[in-house]
Amino acid sequence: MTSPPAAPAGHVAPQADHADKARTLLQRIADLRAWLFLAFLILGFELWSRISFGGTFLFNPFNIQSIAVFAVAPLLLATGQTFVIISGGIDLSMGFIMGLAAVVAAHVINWATPGMGFGLAVLFGSVVAVLVAAIPGIVNGMLVALLKVPPFIGTLGMFGVARGVAFLLAGGTTVPVKNEVFSALGNGKISGVPYIIIVTAIFVLIMHYLLGQTKFGQHNYAIGANAQAARRAGINIKWHLLRLYILSGMCAGLAGVLYAARFSAGAAQAGEPLLLDSVAAVVIGGASLFGGSGTILGTVAGAFVIAVIQYGLVFINVAPFWQFISVGVVIIISVLIDQAQRRFSGGRQSE
Description:
Layout: H1 13-31, H2 33-52, H3 61-86, H4 94-116, H5 118-146, H6 151-170, E1 175-176, H7 180-187, E2 189-190, E3 193-194, H8 195-213, H9 215-225, H10 227-232, H11 237-263, E4 265-266, H12 275-284, H13 296-315, H14 322-350
Antiparallel strand pairs: 1-4, 2-3
Helix pairs in contact: 2-13, 3-8, 3-9, 3-11, 3-12, 3-13, 4-5, 4-6, 4-11, 5-6, 5-11, 7-11, 8-9, 12-13, 13-14
């Protein structure tokens, strides 16, 4: 009995092409999930606003500005967190490093204002605060890079140290700042745009360039994807991780300075509720907790997803406790998508 003739190869190739195109499309959709979440939220709140209040949510300049201001501190923390998570680590100390920087900025500006004047005192105090925030980053880097302490444990320990030092410096209370220039930095505007949003945007663009266009960023991805391969390629992993955690601390320091400027006071607990938001923004933005993937632009989208949820629920008069549920659901969905992506990519590689 003769076997039927084999089908021409040309009949199989289109099927494979269609399958590859479908996979590529799904991959792109997964990569853009943060922006899709953001668009869905904005559309949902816009529809709710028009139906319930007869007004607009998206095209209200006050709403847009408020959401952007809401996003400033979490985004600055998340920017540093993005670098750390891409490398395969995590920094749990950022919240209280931010609080420490806020308290230091308040004290130094108050001390320097009589002798230096308003403007120079703000500049001096801000620089000192950011440099002080780098010190816990140095310790974190030494613990992780030199002593091989797991990032979760090492930065959790620094969380407690920074918290205690911040409260000691603050005397257990907030530290008011009496400086008109500092208050203007936190609450002033230029052409209707708050200064703190402009500062944050410039800083985020610099970090975007650092991660995407420099050797430092390339090495960060390489270490997160495969540390052993990165070491064999000649990357000095210890030196890189040390610089990485210093950068993370300085991002938290800048967040602390802008927080103190916005409220004209330094508070040790300033960043405590924002730590989880920073991690959530990175995860929602598409970074993998296993390391090796993520972008600053994705983190920006993730931070705005959280800010839109927080502000939008208040806008439509929903109890604020739903914020935690909503953000938690988005985080879970993002992690599930990341897991599916990893399984999908592994399957393709094995094929």
